[in-house]
Write a sequence for this structure.
C-alpha cells in the first residue's frame, strides 16, 4: 500500500486532505507554451483568476510548483471574517473614512462573490454561518463593544453584536474569555473543498492547469513575460504572480513586502460531548496578536490553530496546541489528535494585501495576512476584470501603502522573530 501523499512545501498531513474525497491530479508541463495570460501559483487567487479569465475566452495557463492545495489556500483555518484584516476604524486614521468604507464594501462583495461562485459551480464546501471574536484581556472589552457599534453605525453592517461575559461563555462552552462579538453575517468552510471545486471549474472553463511545475525564473523579453521551468518555457502577454508566501526567489519586490510565517493547526478525534464546545457551531478567533482560531467540523472534531513560527523550525505541533485547548476546555486535556499540520502564510507589515505591478505585464497579489479565505479568491476575480478591461477595482488595493520589511533578505526574519516574541509576551501580560 502506497504511503499517503505528503506535501513537499507544507509539513504534516491535514484533516482536509483526508476528508475532501479524491483530490484531482493535473499534468506536469511538457514542452513550451504561448498563451495570453500566465498565472504562477495554484491557490485561491490563481485558480479564481484562471476560472474567470478562461470563462471569458482568454487562453490561460496556470503553473503550480507542488499540487493544488499544498499551500495555505488548502490548509488554513477556513474562516471568512468580515472586512479587511485591519478593523475599519483603524484604517480610517490612515486613509480616511471614504477609502476605508470602500475597502469594507469590497470585502462584503467578496463574501457575496464566494457564495455566488460556489452556487454557480455546485461546490459544496461545508459552509456554516457564525463567527465569534473573543476578548482575552479585560482592557480590550470596550474596544470590542465600540467595534460592533461602529460596524452598524458607520459601515452599514448590522450583523455583528457585542456579547457580555455570560453569553460569551455560553456560546464558547468555557469561562476562558471576558467578552466577544458575534458576527452572524459571516461563517466558515472546508478550504480544500473550495479549492478543489474551483480548480475543477477552471479546468472545465478551459484553463490549462499544471502541477509539479515550479517556475525557476520570470523574465521580460520582446514585450512578453517568460516563465522558465524544468519542463519548458511559458510565454505570455501578461502574468499574475499569486504565490503569496512562496515567491521569494521569483520577484525581489514581493520578497521585500511579503514575509512567510508558519502557522499550525491540529484536529482532534470526534468529540465525545460536542455540545460542550461551541454549541452554536460558530468559528472563533481571539484578541491575541498571535491569534488563536478554532471551530468544529461537521463530524464534531475540534480544529484548533494557535501556534506560529518565524523560521523553518517545526518542532512538536500538537504539544503546544494541546496546552492551549486545555486552557480553554480543561475536560479536553487528554483528547486525542488525529491530524497536525502547518503551512506558510504570507503577511505584510500593516496586515493588508500587497498588490503591485513591479514590471511591465506582471501583477503580484499576496500578503493576505491570515484573511485570505475571504479576500484571495476575490482578488483573482478582480485581476480578471483588469485583464478584460472592465472596472479596475484591484487599483483600490494597489493604492495601499505597504512598506517593505526592514532588514532586507538577511535580517528581516530575525527582526520579525524579535517583534513577534515581544507581541506574544504582551498577549500574556
Amino acid at each position: 500500500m502506497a504511503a499517503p501523499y505528503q506535501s513537499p512545501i507544507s509539513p504534516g498531513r491535514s484533516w482536509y486532505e483526508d476528508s475532501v474525497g479524491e483530490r484531482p491530479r493535473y499534468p506536469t508541463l511538457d514542452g513550451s507554451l504561448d498563451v495570453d495570460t500566465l498565472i504562477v501559483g495554484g491557490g485561491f487567487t490563481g485558480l479564481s483568476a484562471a476560472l474567470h479569465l478562461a470563462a471569458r475566452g482568454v487562453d490561460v495557463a496556470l503553473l503550480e510548483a507542488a499540487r493544488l492545495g499544498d499551500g495555505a489556500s488548502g490548509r488554513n483555518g477556513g474562516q471568512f471574517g468580515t472586512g479587511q484584516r485591519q478593523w475599519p476604524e483603524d484604517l480610517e486614521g490612515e486613509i480616511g473614512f471614504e477609502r476605508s468604507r470602500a475597502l469594507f464594501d469590497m470585502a462584503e462583495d467578496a463574501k457575496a462573490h464566494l457564495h455566488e461562485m460556489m452556487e454557480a459551480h455546485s461546490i459544496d464546501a461545508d459552509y456554516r454561518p457564525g463567527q465569534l471574536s473573543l476578548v482575552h484581556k479585560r482592557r480590550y472589552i470596550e474596544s470590542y463593544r465600540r467595534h460592533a457599534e461602529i460596524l452598524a453605525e458607520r459601515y452599514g453592517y448590522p450583523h455583528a453584536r457585542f456579547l457580555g461575559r455570560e453569553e460569551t461563555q455560553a456560546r464558547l462552552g468555557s469561562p476562558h474569555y471576558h467578552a466577544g462579538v458575534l458576527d452572524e453575517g459571516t461563517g466558515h468552510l472546508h478550504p480544500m473543498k473550495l479549492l478543489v471545486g474551483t480548480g475543477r471549474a477552471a479546468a472545465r472553463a478551459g484553463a490549462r492547469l499544471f502541477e509539479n511545475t515550479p517556475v525557476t525564473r520570470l523574465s521580460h523579453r520582446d514585450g512578453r513575460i517568460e516563465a522558465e521551468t524544468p519542463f519548458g518555457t511559458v510565454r505570455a502577454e501578461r502574468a499574475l504572480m499569486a504565490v503569496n508566501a512562496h515567491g521569494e526567489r521569483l520577484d525581489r519586490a514581493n520578497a521585500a513586502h511579503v514575509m512567510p510565517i508558519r502557522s499550525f493547526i491540529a484536529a482532534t478525534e470526534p468529540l465525545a460531548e460536542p455540545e460542550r464546545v461551541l454549541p452554536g457551531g460558530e468559528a472563533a478567533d481571539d484578541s491575541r496578536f498571535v491569534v488563536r482560531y478554532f471551530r468544529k467540523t461537521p463530524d464534531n472534531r475540534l480544529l484548533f490553530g494557535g501556534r506560529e513560527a518565524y523560521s523553518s523550525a517545526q518542532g512538536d505541533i500538537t504539544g503546544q496546541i494541546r496546552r492551549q485547548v486545555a486552557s480553554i476546555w480543561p475536560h479536553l486535556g487528554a483528547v486525542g489528535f488525529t491530524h497536525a499540520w502547518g503551512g506558510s502564510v504570507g503577511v505584510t507589515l500593516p496586515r493588508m494585501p500587497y498588490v503591485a505591478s513591479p514590471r511591465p505585464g506582471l501583477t503580484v497579489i499576496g500578503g493576505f495576512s491570515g484573511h485570505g479565505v475571504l479576500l484571495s479568491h476575490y482578488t483573482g476575480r478582480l485581476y480578471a476584470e483588469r485583464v478584460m478591461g472592465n472596472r479596475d477595482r484591484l487599483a483600490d488595493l494597489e493604492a495601499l501603502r505597504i512598506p517593505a520589511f526592514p532588514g532586507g533578505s538577511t535580517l528581516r526574519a530575525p527582526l520579525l522573530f524579535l517583534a513577534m516574541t515581544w507581541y506574544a509576551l504582551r498577549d500574556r501580560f
In short: Residues 256 and 404 are 5 Å apart (CA to CA). The chain has a mean pLDDT of 93. The first helix runs from residue 15 to 19.
